[in-house]
Protein backbone atom coordinates (compact mmCIF):
# COMPACT_ATOMS: atom_id res chain seq x y z
CA UNK A 1 0.00 0.00 0.00
CA UNK A 2 2.97 2.31 0.57
CA UNK A 3 4.07 1.68 -3.01
CA UNK A 4 0.52 2.36 -4.22
CA UNK A 5 0.48 5.68 -2.38
CA UNK A 6 3.81 6.69 -3.88
CA UNK A 7 2.69 5.69 -7.39
CA UNK A 8 -0.60 7.57 -7.14
CA UNK A 9 1.20 10.71 -5.93
CA UNK A 10 3.93 10.51 -8.57
CA UNK A 11 1.49 10.00 -11.45
CA UNK A 12 -1.07 12.45 -10.04
CA UNK A 13 -3.71 9.76 -10.43
CA UNK A 14 -7.26 9.96 -9.25
CA UNK A 15 -7.55 6.78 -7.21
CA UNK A 16 -9.31 5.79 -4.00
CA UNK A 17 -10.61 2.83 -2.01
CA UNK A 18 -14.16 2.80 -0.65
CA UNK A 19 -15.13 -0.10 1.61
CA UNK A 20 -18.77 -1.13 1.80
CA UNK A 21 -20.37 -3.53 4.28
CA UNK A 22 -21.61 -6.82 2.78
CA UNK A 23 -25.20 -7.91 2.96
CA UNK A 24 -26.26 -11.37 4.12
CA UNK A 25 -26.44 -12.95 0.67
CA UNK A 26 -22.70 -12.64 0.05
CA UNK A 27 -21.61 -14.71 3.05
CA UNK A 28 -17.84 -15.18 3.21
CA UNK A 29 -17.27 -13.94 -0.34
CA UNK A 30 -15.62 -10.61 -0.95
CA UNK A 31 -17.06 -8.45 -3.70
CA UNK A 32 -14.94 -5.76 -5.36
CA UNK A 33 -16.09 -3.18 -7.88
CA UNK A 34 -13.64 -1.29 -10.07
CA UNK A 35 -14.71 1.98 -11.67
CA UNK A 36 -12.74 3.62 -14.47
CA UNK A 37 -13.08 6.94 -16.20
CA UNK A 38 -13.94 6.54 -19.92
CA UNK A 39 -12.19 8.57 -22.57
CA UNK A 40 -13.86 11.78 -23.71
CA UNK A 41 -17.22 13.11 -22.58
CA UNK A 42 -19.23 10.76 -20.36
CA UNK A 43 -22.01 10.60 -17.78
CA UNK A 44 -20.92 7.58 -15.70
CA UNK A 45 -17.79 5.57 -15.02
CA UNK A 46 -17.34 2.10 -16.47
CA UNK A 47 -17.66 -0.75 -14.00
CA UNK A 48 -16.14 -4.20 -13.47
CA UNK A 49 -17.23 -6.64 -10.73
CA UNK A 50 -15.15 -9.35 -9.07
CA UNK A 51 -16.07 -11.98 -6.47
CA UNK A 52 -13.43 -13.66 -4.34
CA UNK A 53 -13.83 -16.54 -1.92
CA UNK A 54 -12.72 -16.31 1.68
CA UNK A 55 -9.39 -18.03 0.98
CA UNK A 56 -8.32 -15.74 -1.85
CA UNK A 57 -10.02 -12.43 -0.93
CA UNK A 58 -6.90 -10.64 0.31
CA UNK A 59 -4.73 -11.74 -2.61
CA UNK A 60 -7.55 -10.87 -5.02
CA UNK A 61 -7.92 -7.31 -3.80
CA UNK A 62 -4.17 -6.75 -3.83
CA UNK A 63 -3.93 -8.18 -7.34
CA UNK A 64 -6.55 -5.71 -8.56
CA UNK A 65 -4.63 -2.83 -7.00
CA UNK A 66 -1.37 -4.06 -8.50
CA UNK A 67 -2.98 -4.36 -11.93
CA UNK A 68 -4.89 -1.07 -11.99
CA UNK A 69 -2.49 1.19 -10.10
CA UNK A 70 0.96 -0.34 -10.53
CA UNK A 71 0.33 -1.66 -14.05
CA UNK A 72 1.34 -5.26 -13.31
CA UNK A 73 0.03 -8.16 -15.41
CA UNK A 74 -2.55 -10.19 -13.48
CA UNK A 75 -4.33 -12.59 -15.92
CA UNK A 76 -5.58 -14.77 -13.04
CA UNK A 77 -8.16 -12.10 -12.23
CA UNK A 78 -10.24 -13.04 -15.26
CA UNK A 79 -11.64 -16.11 -13.52
CA UNK A 80 -13.04 -13.98 -10.69
CA UNK A 81 -14.83 -11.42 -12.86
CA UNK A 82 -18.65 -11.54 -12.91
CA UNK A 83 -21.34 -9.59 -14.75
CA UNK A 84 -22.04 -6.29 -12.96
CA UNK A 85 -25.50 -5.53 -11.60
CA UNK A 86 -27.48 -2.89 -13.44
CA UNK A 87 -28.65 0.37 -11.92
CA UNK A 88 -27.06 2.74 -9.41
CA UNK A 89 -25.44 2.06 -6.06
CA UNK A 90 -25.90 4.58 -3.25
CA UNK A 91 -23.10 4.52 -0.68
CA UNK A 92 -24.09 6.14 2.62
CA UNK A 93 -21.26 7.03 4.98
CA UNK A 94 -22.09 5.62 8.43
CA UNK A 95 -18.51 5.73 9.68
CA UNK A 96 -19.11 7.14 13.16
CA UNK A 97 -15.56 6.41 14.32
CA UNK A 98 -14.24 8.92 11.80
CA UNK A 99 -16.89 11.51 12.66
CA UNK A 100 -19.88 11.25 14.95
CA UNK A 101 -22.06 13.13 12.45
CA UNK A 102 -21.76 10.33 9.90
CA UNK A 103 -22.85 7.79 12.49
CA UNK A 104 -25.67 9.91 13.88
CA UNK A 105 -27.17 11.04 10.58
CA UNK A 106 -25.84 8.50 8.07
CA UNK A 107 -27.00 5.32 9.82
CA UNK A 108 -30.71 6.36 9.97
CA UNK A 109 -30.62 7.33 6.30
CA UNK A 110 -29.13 3.95 5.37
CA UNK A 111 -31.83 2.12 7.33
CA UNK A 112 -34.59 4.25 5.79
CA UNK A 113 -33.33 3.55 2.26
CA UNK A 114 -33.25 -0.23 2.62
CA UNK A 115 -36.67 -0.47 1.01
CA UNK A 116 -36.70 2.36 -1.52
CA UNK A 117 -38.79 0.46 -4.06
CA UNK A 118 -36.41 1.68 -6.77
CA UNK A 119 -33.79 -0.11 -8.86
CA UNK A 120 -30.89 0.85 -6.63
CA UNK A 121 -28.73 -0.80 -4.01
CA UNK A 122 -27.86 0.99 -0.78
CA UNK A 123 -24.65 0.32 1.15
CA UNK A 124 -23.06 1.33 4.45
CA UNK A 125 -19.57 2.55 3.62
CA UNK A 126 -16.33 3.83 5.03
CA UNK A 127 -15.75 7.57 5.05
CA UNK A 128 -15.10 9.37 1.75
CA UNK A 129 -14.73 12.95 3.01
CA UNK A 130 -17.05 15.76 4.01
CA UNK A 131 -18.04 15.14 7.64
CA UNK A 132 -20.05 18.34 7.77
CA UNK A 133 -22.24 17.17 4.87
CA UNK A 134 -23.69 14.21 6.80
CA UNK A 135 -25.69 12.32 5.85
CA UNK A 136 -23.57 12.23 2.73
CA UNK A 137 -23.97 9.82 -0.18
CA UNK A 138 -21.65 8.70 -2.96
CA UNK A 139 -23.62 7.75 -6.10
CA UNK A 140 -21.94 5.25 -8.39
CA UNK A 141 -21.28 4.64 -11.24
CA UNK A 142 -22.17 8.30 -11.78
CA UNK A 143 -19.42 9.47 -9.41
CA UNK A 144 -21.55 12.19 -7.78
CA UNK A 145 -21.54 13.13 -4.10
CA UNK A 146 -24.59 14.48 -2.27
CA UNK A 147 -24.94 16.38 1.02
CA UNK A 148 -27.60 16.31 3.77
CA UNK A 149 -29.66 13.78 1.82
CA UNK A 150 -33.04 12.59 3.11
CA UNK A 151 -34.99 9.45 2.14
CA UNK A 152 -37.43 11.57 0.13
CA UNK A 153 -34.66 13.36 -1.74
CA UNK A 154 -32.87 10.08 -2.43
CA UNK A 155 -36.03 8.66 -4.01
CA UNK A 156 -36.41 11.87 -5.99
CA UNK A 157 -32.86 11.45 -7.27
CA UNK A 158 -33.50 7.85 -8.33
CA UNK A 159 -36.78 8.63 -10.08
CA UNK A 160 -35.72 12.00 -11.57
CA UNK A 161 -39.03 13.53 -10.51
CA UNK A 162 -40.17 16.67 -8.72
CA UNK A 163 -38.32 19.95 -8.34
CA UNK A 164 -34.69 19.28 -9.24
CA UNK A 165 -33.51 22.41 -7.40
CA UNK A 166 -34.21 20.65 -4.11
CA UNK A 167 -31.41 18.26 -5.10
CA UNK A 168 -29.15 20.85 -6.72
CA UNK A 169 -28.92 22.61 -3.36
CA UNK A 170 -27.49 19.36 -1.89
CA UNK A 171 -25.11 18.55 -4.76
CA UNK A 172 -21.50 18.26 -3.56
CA UNK A 173 -20.06 17.71 -7.03
CA UNK A 174 -18.86 15.31 -9.70
CA UNK A 175 -15.55 13.52 -9.12
CA UNK A 176 -14.59 13.66 -12.81
CA UNK A 177 -13.79 17.40 -12.61
CA UNK A 178 -11.47 19.77 -10.80
CA UNK A 179 -12.79 21.77 -7.85
CA UNK A 180 -13.76 24.95 -9.74
CA UNK A 181 -15.08 22.95 -12.70
CA UNK A 182 -17.37 21.15 -10.25
CA UNK A 183 -18.93 24.47 -9.24
CA UNK A 184 -19.73 25.18 -12.90
CA UNK A 185 -21.12 21.68 -13.50
CA UNK A 186 -23.31 21.88 -10.39
CA UNK A 187 -24.68 25.24 -11.51
CA UNK A 188 -25.45 23.71 -14.92
CA UNK A 189 -27.56 21.02 -13.21
CA UNK A 190 -29.47 23.73 -11.37
CA UNK A 191 -29.96 25.62 -14.64
CA UNK A 192 -30.84 22.72 -16.97
CA UNK A 193 -32.73 20.18 -14.86
CA UNK A 194 -32.85 16.41 -14.51
CA UNK A 195 -31.66 15.53 -18.02
CA UNK A 196 -28.29 17.10 -17.21
CA UNK A 197 -27.35 14.28 -14.83
CA UNK A 198 -27.45 11.67 -17.60
CA UNK A 199 -25.91 13.81 -20.34
CA UNK A 200 -22.40 12.93 -21.57
CA UNK A 201 -20.26 15.92 -20.65
CA UNK A 202 -16.73 17.23 -20.28
CA UNK A 203 -15.14 20.38 -18.87
CA UNK A 204 -11.98 22.38 -19.33
CA UNK A 205 -10.63 25.41 -17.53
CA UNK A 206 -9.93 28.22 -19.99
CA UNK A 207 -8.50 30.66 -17.46
CA UNK A 208 -7.73 30.44 -13.74
CA UNK A 209 -6.60 33.00 -11.18
CA UNK A 210 -6.74 33.50 -7.42
CA UNK A 211 -10.24 34.97 -7.83
CA UNK A 212 -11.72 32.00 -9.73
CA UNK A 213 -11.85 30.52 -13.21
CA UNK A 214 -13.52 30.52 -16.61
CA UNK A 215 -14.86 27.02 -17.29
CA UNK A 216 -16.16 25.60 -20.56
CA UNK A 217 -18.69 22.75 -20.43
CA UNK A 218 -19.36 20.66 -23.52
CA UNK A 219 -22.23 18.18 -23.51
CA UNK A 220 -24.94 16.43 -25.50
CA UNK A 221 -28.60 17.37 -25.27
CA UNK A 222 -31.13 14.50 -24.88
CA UNK A 223 -31.65 14.45 -28.67
CA UNK A 224 -27.90 13.96 -29.19
CA UNK A 225 -27.11 17.45 -30.46
CA UNK A 226 -23.99 19.13 -29.01
CA UNK A 227 -24.15 21.95 -26.48
CA UNK A 228 -21.73 24.44 -24.95
CA UNK A 229 -21.84 26.53 -21.77
CA UNK A 230 -19.16 28.91 -20.54
CA UNK A 231 -19.15 29.84 -16.87
CA UNK A 232 -17.39 32.46 -14.77
CA UNK A 233 -16.68 30.93 -11.35
CA UNK A 234 -15.74 33.64 -8.86
CA UNK A 235 -14.92 33.57 -5.16
CA UNK A 236 -17.28 35.94 -3.34
CA UNK A 237 -16.14 35.53 0.26
CA UNK A 238 -15.67 32.94 2.96
CA UNK A 239 -17.77 31.28 5.64
CA UNK A 240 -16.37 29.99 8.94
CA UNK A 241 -17.22 26.28 9.12
CA UNK A 242 -16.20 23.42 11.37
CA UNK A 243 -14.38 20.62 9.64
CA UNK A 244 -15.80 17.90 11.88
CA UNK A 245 -17.76 17.27 15.06
CA UNK A 246 -14.58 16.44 17.00
CA UNK A 247 -13.39 19.99 17.42
CA UNK A 248 -14.98 23.44 17.72
CA UNK A 249 -12.26 24.93 15.49
CA UNK A 250 -13.53 26.60 12.34
CA UNK A 251 -11.88 27.27 9.00
CA UNK A 252 -12.48 29.96 6.40
CA UNK A 253 -14.24 28.12 3.58
CA UNK A 254 -14.38 29.90 0.19
CA UNK A 255 -17.80 30.56 -1.34
CA UNK A 256 -18.30 30.85 -5.11
CA UNK A 257 -20.81 32.35 -7.51
CA UNK A 258 -21.32 31.08 -11.05
CA UNK A 259 -22.46 33.32 -13.90
CA UNK A 260 -22.98 32.34 -17.51
CA UNK A 261 -21.49 33.90 -20.62
CA UNK A 262 -23.59 34.18 -23.73
Automatic annotation (TrEMBL):
Polar residues composition-biased segments: 244-253
Protein's recorded name: Sucrase ferredoxin
Signal peptide start-end: none
Organism, as annotated: Deinococcus ruber
InterPro entries per record: Aim32/Apd1-like (IPR009737), Aim32/Apd1-like_bac (IPR010350), Thioredoxin-like_sf (IPR036249)
Matching Pfam families: Suc_Fer-like
Region listing for Disordered, in residue ranges: 243-262
SUPFAM superfamilies recorded: Thioredoxin-like
